[in-house]
Amino acid sequence: MATKRLARQLGLIRRKSIAPANGNLGRSKSKQLFDYLIVIDFESTCWNDGKRHHSQEIIEFPAVLLNTSTGQIESEFQAYVQPQEHPILSEFCMELTGIKQAQVDEGVPLKICLSQFCKWIQKIQQQKNIIFATGVSEPSTSEVKLCAFVTWSDWDLGVCLEYECKRKQLLKPVFLNSWIDLRATYKVTVKNRGLSGALAGIGIGIPQDEEPFWFCLIFISSGLDDSRNTALLAWKMIRDGCVMKITRSLNKGPFLLPSWTWNSDLASGDQHAFLQQEFGCGTYRTLLQKPNISKQEKGNILWLTMLSKPQKNYSDCMLNTAS
């Protein structure tokens, strides 16, 4: 935090993404398990008053869709979110994130933001034939495109969103339960090169002894810019031969998100057959009544019910399925 604040005072913070919007980015050297990556980097409420705050809230929800074959960012999502537990941003938070009080005042509550995000996910899923799957060990051989989420550390999805949804009793989309921690992947795959080597590949040359300082400069800006920059670093790693794999999953129990979940054209008979084979019952309603189904699994089932009926209103589903 101190380094970031000093960097801002010195006028060294980049406010724009360093990722090129287009152009020849080359091709990946390795066959990736995932055809697309969705990079997320939240901005949240924060303080420097010396007190321990246990209720950080998301104030910017950004995401970018990266094509792992071309390195192109093909779609973006951004929403400013109203903090409800601490509606007034601290001066430190506004200085650090660059987000103004008026921007969050004009934003939406988190539950509406999640609904908007789900609509964006549905749109790109339909446009690009994307599905989400965990436990992938081989590239897809069908026409569908596999996709995974990427964050820099486990904080965004494993801590920030997870606990805010629990506090506010919001049903978090189940597809956000698994992701790739790019920081952990980076440490394993390019640990011998250092951050300076990775950043040199995306056009930033820095002295090795200044890595920590410059790392802060690159990843301080709007959440959307941070997401773009993280996507660019992921693309650099992919071009160097790194195969992106899921590093963290919050899914528990035997119920896993089936690969056809986002395929709204799947025949109802196929859904019935899947349920009968996996759980010995033919409908979601019957499955929900089973005594050994946990709360987490019930949440998954409710999402499957919603997603199997594309005529449903996503905003209504988000509000009505809150636990």
From TrEMBL:
Q: Which InterPro entries match?
A: 3-5_Exoribonuclease (IPR051274), ERI-1_3'hExo-like (IPR047201), Ribonucl_H (IPR013520), RNaseH-like_sf (IPR012337), RNaseH_sf (IPR036397)
Where does the record place the Exonuclease domain? 36-243
Q: Which GO terms describe its molecular function?
A: 3'-5'-RNA exonuclease activity; nucleic acid binding; zinc ion binding
Source species, domain of life: Eukaryota
Quote the Gene3D superfamilies the UniProt record gives.
Ribonuclease H-like superfamily/Ribonuclease H
Swiss-Prot/TrEMBL keywords? Exonuclease, Hydrolase, Magnesium, Metal-binding, Nuclease, Zinc, Zinc-finger
Q: In the UniProt record, does the keyword Transmembrane occur?
A: no
**Which positions make up the signal peptide?**
none
Cofactors that this protein relies on: Mg(2+)
Its family remark reads: Belongs to the ERI2 family.
Q: What is this protein called?
A: ERI1 exoribonuclease 2
Q: What is the species of this protein?
A: Rhinopithecus bieti
